[in-house]
Amino acid sequence: MLPPAPSHPQRLVYLGTPELAVLPLRALHAAGFEIALVVSRADKRRRRSSGPEPSPVKAAALELGLPVTDQLEVAGQVGADLGVVVAYGRLIPVSLLERVPMINLHFSLLPRWRGAAPVERAILAGDETTGVCLMRVEEGLDTGGVYARRELSIGPDETAAELRERLVAAGVELLLATLERGLGEPQPQVGEPTYAEKVTPNELRLDWERPALELHRKVRVGGAYTFFRGKRLKIWRSRLVDPGSALQIEQLPSEPPRPGELLGTMVATGDGMLELLEVQPEGRPRIDAQSWRHGARPQPGERLGHGA
Q1: β 82-86/114-115 pair status
Q2: 43/41 Cα distance (integer angstroms)
Q3: Which residues contact 250 (CB under 8 A, 6 or more apart)?
């Protein structure tokens, strides 16, 4: 059986890797918690022309003057009474949890969306609410009891990046408030679990035969793409078009448009129209869709998603 987490920990280890895990680390440091060690993933090459670079969490730890390592087992050797995990990226072995109890800041309302991509999966599924949980780390994948949670609504046009930023801010508040008042006893997760596997590039290719609502959700996740004249075109922002809007009525041809057909900055789909707001042609920076259209000059009847 794993040891219980101390109600009011004094000495912490922090485990995290990406940018979203930087703010909680800085907040714990600013609040006066003793952080004995930061554990992050090993340096990796992020650009072809550069050498290995530290993770965002490692870079922040070095800036704050905190000891940092990529060796997970060291976390059990510094006399910490609690580990705080935020998007570390690896499962914590039981052998370490037996020495250092750990809590995890997870960005969903568990047991919904256990796993690596809870924010993206919530958007793709059309969830209207999500949240953040402070949970006990156990051997299983996000199976531990929950110490505290906070619910947030998801805006109909909110991107994953925007939602993640709000979740991190709410998570920092939840983490600090819970540690200040005391962890107490975690409550078991209730309900049927769902799992949030990483979103693959193939999932983000836009199939214009699908409904506009489904495609809009993929765009909101980030990295959605199609093809135009044989080259990749990323779609960074879009908007659902009201079927009765004056904009749509004015631009609709006499014959129903085929899926993928461009009508100004609108695209016909299998069900409804999707308006493009921000795009990125292959090898070029992002640009607003109207400017892209003026430069590309699509011909009448020309379609996205074909020719590749």
Answers
A1: unpaired
A2: 7
A3: none
Q: At what angle do helices 56-64 and 22-30 cross, to 10 degrees?
A: 20
Would you say 142 and 104 are in contact if contact means Cβ atoms under 8 Å apart? yes
- Rounded to two decimals, what is the model's pTM? 0.92
Sequence-ordered list of residues with C-beta below 8 angstroms from that of 203, at least 6 positions apart, any chain: 124, 218
| Dist CA 272 CA 168 (whole Å) | 34
Work out the number of other CB atoms within 10 angstroms of the CB of residue 3. Answer: 11
| pLDDT at site 246 | 44
Q: Which amino acid makes up residue 221?
A: V
CA distance 298 to 111: 47
pLDDT in tens, 17-34: 999 999 999 999 999 999
244-276 burial: b if 16+ Cβ within 10 Å, else e = eeeebeeeeeeeebebbbbbebbbbbeebbbbb
CB 190 within 8 A of CB 272: no
| Averaged pLDDT, 99-121 | 97
pLDDT of residue 253: 60
Condensed to tens digits (0 to 9), the pLDDT of residues 260-305 reads 999 999 999 999 999 999 999 999 999 999 999 999 999 988 999 9
- Using only the alpha carbons of the chain, give its radius of gyration: 23
Say which residue the tokens 């085929």 belong to.
Answer: 258
* Structural tokens at position 190: 């209730």
Our CA dihedral for 43, 47, 51, 55, rounded to 10 degrees, sits at -20
CA distance linking residue 27 with residue 179, whole number of Å? 12
